[in-house]
Structures are given as structure tokens and as C-alpha cells.
Amino acid sequence: MPGLELRSVSKRFGPLTAVEAVNLDLPAGKFISFLGPSGCGKTTLLRLIAGLETPSSGQVVLEDRDITALPTHQRNIGMVFQSLALFPHLNVWNNITYGLRIRGMPQADRRRRAGELLEMVRLPGVEERDIKQLSGGQRQRVAIARALALEPTLFLLDEPLSALDAKLREEMQVELRMLQERLGITTIIVTHDQREAMTMSDLVVVMSTAEVQQVGPPLEIYRSPATAFVADFIGSSNLLDAQCVDPSTVRIGESEFSVPSVPEGARSGDALTLTIRPEDVHVLPSGDTASNRLPGRVSFVRDVGASVELFLRCGELELISISAPKDRPEARPGDDVMVELPAESCVVVRR
Amino acid sequence: MSAHSRPRGLVPHLPFAWPALMLGCFFLVPFAIMVVVSFFHRPESGVGTYEVGFEFTHYLRFFSPLFARHILITIEFAAVAALLSVLVGFPFTYFLSRFRRRPQVLALVFILCVLSLSEVIVAYSWSVLLSRSAGISNFFVWLGLLAKPASWTPGYGAVLFGLTYFNLPFAVLIMYPQCTRLDTEITEAARTLGASPLRTFFTVVVPMLWPTIMTAAIVLFVFTMGAFVTPQWLGRPQHWMFAILISDQALTRGNLPFASALSMFFMAITLALVALTVRLGRRKIER
Fold it and tell me: Do B189 and A81 touch (CB under 8 A)?
């Protein structure tokens, strides 16, 4: 089924480029996250899809139809805004069925539909309440119900959970995902929280400075980041400056490391970045030399209960290793150790 | 000791002394004098004189067709001019508040400039512009819109136009702060729900800013009730609003007790109308 396609879409605000030549092909019926730090252009991209901004160049194509010039109110999209943007002058059920009233649905039918939608977002019985009488989480649900009332082709959410406390946020993430799976609606959520993107999405679009860095399923993005930015932004990573030696070897300082591969077209002497997740860095007793290992010293130990973080210094390099409490290495600050970077866990990207 | 106990002694109450003094000297005392004078006796022949007394003569004079007519035209002018200024001013202010910062500031500076013009200058300028000899009708003739120059002043339309023109900057300044506070995401939400920009304006913007619109209308109504220069310059004697009548009694005819009584009556009517409007406005919001 054809979904949403962006063809070299750019958006400039005066001298500022918010979105630069973005090409995306997003399949229908999936849950997609636009993930990136603030100011990376992810919200602008969402607003371009909604028609709230007009692209400076490029096309937005929905279900094989060019909607670039179509005004927002004719696009049949449902959107949840960061501020939720509920209408303060209307009560809950009139908020939810605002779009249905615009379409001319009779009042009795609207009233019934509001009940169904509230049932769907698991907030029944608040039809007559004022928006001011609802808690943050309840408002969230009303905003979702309102956005879905018109059975839109696209469901867009602009950092909708950022105002909720951590516990409620996690509950809503799971619930949103279940709702999306049940309705099978193409959903795009904008977030700066990588955990949120990981738990909910089929597909993550990582953005930085107006450009798309990588598109892929959450695990793929986590396991094989395409750029140093993605590696750093998704979870924490050790980023080490490296030099290409041959297609399966890089040099870091004086030592050589075997790696699964180097970026396509990298030649001997090219500057690269070796990335490795902290949980993949192993700490072994000192003197246990082998390939892909280098000697170092523990500079700090941070025990956070669920995991133990070791801050390591290997000559010029600084590394972090994370392990579960039961695998905790026998090391204290100041101890000399051997640090292993297993070849299969190393991902080499261009610098 | 309770933390909420009332402050004792003179010092904690001193901050209230200044407004109390100002209100007392410049409002309460003159007002009391006016109330007392409105019951005084005025001898038949004595221009500008009155004698201490207590009589309802001046109040009973209201029940004449002349004053009824003038109070009605005053209310009509004030209501219609307030309505027109809000009708023109609200869309203007709202769309201005959606502009970028710079054009907004420029427009507001311009509006403040218009505001700094005195009513005399505004009324006089319009009496020239609406006249046959040098007015804008000559321009319309040149454009081919009119066959020959017309004289639009003095007249009902000219008064209304002058009052509305004078009110407009006030309307904008009263409504501007609330307009800028309206979150753009609210109107965007309406658009994603299928409302055209026009529908959004009438189903979201107007209802949300209704209290502001009402406030502006009431303030301008009260403000216009006291109009003096504009109806005198742009209107015929039958268009004279109540303030002109009061000044006529006080200054030309020297009947201070009657002028005081008229002022009292005028104030009572204005207050009653404001109370009515506020009540009607509130009902509209609750609905």
C-alpha cells in the first residue's frame, strides 16, 4: 500500500534552513518516529506534512497524490499538538466532535461518536466536562480522540507526551502503540526522546541539522548506526577516532583493531570513527593480552544499582563500560585493566 | 498568633492613603457637590446663580420629549459607533497579531500616532474631508464613481463615521494584548480538523476572544456616550449628544443645578446600560 512520500523537500525561513532536501518513503500503516535533538527540523518536517508550512521546494505525496499545494483543512489528517491545543470554549465532547460538526454530522450522532471515541482512548464518561477540569493525562486522551474522530489518513503527533511525568509518559507510549496497531493508521510522532522512539516505532527517522541521518527499524539503528551522530544520539556510545587500514582493520593510536567492515569506499588512511556501545566494552584483568584489546586504567566507578559503569582511560582514549551487577568486574578506581573491544560489536562510520 | 491576622496600626495601611486621598479630593468631593447642587433652587431670572434648597424640579424636567430624544440619539450613536469600531477593529487586531513582530510594532506605532490626535483635529479634518467643496467626494467624481461632488456633513452618517474613526485605535489597543496571547496551535488544530480559515475564525477565534470583544465594546460605549466635539462639528442640532446639552445648560444658560441633574441622570443611564451589557455578555459565554 502506498504511504507518504517526501521528494527532496526543503524549508527555509529567511536565511535559516530548517529542512534540507529530505527524501523519505514511509510505508502506510506503520508507526514512524522523527527523532532528533531540538532544532533539528523534525517538527518543521511534520508541519510540512500537515500543510501548516509550505515547502520552499520539493513535493509531499500521500497515497500517490501530490498534496504539496493542498491546504491543511482538505488533507484529512489528525494531529496532536505539543500544547494539545484543545478548545477552551468547548466541553470535552464538543472538542472531540469539532471536526464532525464542520462536516455537518447531526448532534445526536456526534454525541454518540464522542462516547465511542472516549471509550477507545479509555476515558469514558467525561463528555460533559470542561477542559479545565481534566488532568494532563486526560487532556492527552481527549486530544488523541479529537485527532482520530475523522478517521484520518495520517495521524501526526508533535511531542505530545513531553508535558507528562515519566510514569504516565511510559504508559501513554504503550497505549498509543496499541491503539495504532488496532487501527492500523499511518502514524508519525515527533520526539527528542530516543527511548520513546525505540519503544513505539516500526521505523525511526533520525534527524540532525535539517537533514535525515538514518531511516530504519529501531534495532537496526541501535546496532548499526550509519553516522557518528546517530551512534552518539541513540543510546550512549563510545566514539573513537580511527584510521582505515584495510576493509577489516582500523588503527586507533598505535594499536590495530579488527572490525566487521568499514564504510563503503573507505581507503587506507581515511579518517573514520569507531563506535561501540558501553555494554559491549569488556573489562578484563591486567596483562591478559590478545587482539582487539588495549591496556587501561579505571578512573571512576559509578554504581547505579541496575548497572555498573566503569570510566576507563587508555592512554589518550576515554571509554565507558557498562555491565550488569552480576558480571561486575573486580576493579576499583586506579586499577590497571585490559579493555576489550570485540570485533563483532564495533561499528565503523565516516567521521 | 495566626499568620493571616489583619495588620494593626497606621503604618501597614499607609499605602492605601494615597489612592484614598486622590479619590476623595478629585472624585468623591466634586461628585458630592454635584449631587447637592442638582437639588438646589434656581431663580427665574438669575443666570449663573442658584440658591440653597431641596427640590426635584430639575429631575422632573427630564420627562420632556426634547431630552428623551437626545438621550436616545446619544445611546444610539454610542452603541452603533462602539459596535462598528469593534466590528472593524477586531478582525484587524486579530490579523495584525498574527503578523511577524516588525510589521506589528510599526502598525501599533502608527495607531498610537492616530490616538495622539485630539478629537478637535479629527472632527475638523473630517468636516473638511466630507464637505462638498474640498472633500473626498471630488476624488470619487474624478474616479468616475460619483456624478457630482456631494456634501456628507453635517449629518447622521458623518457623526457616526467620525465617532467610529476616533474609537478605532482604542478598540485595537484594548483587544491587542489578548489577541497576541491566542496560541497559534489552537487555530492550526481547527484547520487540521477540516475547518477553513474563515470557519476557524468564526468557530474558534471569535468564541475564544469573546470576553475581550465584549470588554472593548463596553469601554467604547461608555467612552462614546460622553462624545462632545465630534457630534457638534459633524452633526446637526438634532444629532447633538448629551454632553453638548449639559455644557449648554452649564455654560450658555448658566443653569448649574439643571446641568448637575442632567449629569446625574446621564451617569445613571450609562451605568444601567453597562450592567445590562455585562449581563448579556456573560450569558453568551455560558451558553
Answer: yes
The SS3 call for residue A59 is strand
Among B185, B199, B207, the residue with its CB nearest the CB of A83 is B185
CA distance B81 to B159: 9
Name the residue facing A85 among B186, B199, B203 (closest C-beta). B186
pLDDT in tens, A9-21: 999 998 888 988 8
Q: Is B286 an interface residue toward A (CB < 8 Å)?
A: no
Contact between A150 and B194 using a beta-carbon 8 Å cutoff: yes
| Residue B284 near chain A (CB below 8 Å) | no
Nearest chain A residue to B199, by CA:
A102
pLDDT of residue B48: 67
B287 touches chain A (CB under 8 A): no
Per-residue pLDDT for B3 more than 70? Answer: no
DSSP A322: E
* CATH value at residue B107: 1.10.3720.10
Q: What is the grid cell recorded at A199? A: 519503544
Q: pLDDT tens digits for A32-70?
A: 999 988 888 889 999 999 999 999 999 999 988 899 989
Asked if residue A281 lies in contact with residue A320, where contact means CB atoms within 8 angstroms, the answer is yes
A200-215 tens-digit pLDDT: 899 999 998 888 989 9
Rounded CA-CA distance B263/B22 in Å is 22
| Cβ-Cβ contacts under 8 Å, B284 against chain A | none
User: Which CATH code, of 2.40.50.100, 1.10.3210.10, 2.170.150.40, 3.30.420.40, is assigned to A236-283+292-350?
Assistant: 2.40.50.100
* Contact across the interface for B208 and A87, Cβ inside 8 Å: yes
Instruction: Collapse the DSSP code of B208 into the 3-class scheme (helix H, G, I; strand E, B; otherwise coil) and give the result.
Output: helix
A204 dihedral zone (left: phi>0; alpha: psi -120 to 50; beta): beta
Q: Does B115 touch chain A (CB under 8 A)?
A: no
A-interface mutation test, from B193, B206, B208, most A Cβ less than 10 A away:
B193
Q: Is the pTM of this model over 0.80?
A: no
- Helix axis angle, A136-148 to A166-183, nearest 10°: 20
CATH architecture label of A4-228: 3-Layer(aba) Sandwich (3.40)
Q: Do A103 and B196 touch (CB under 8 A)?
A: no
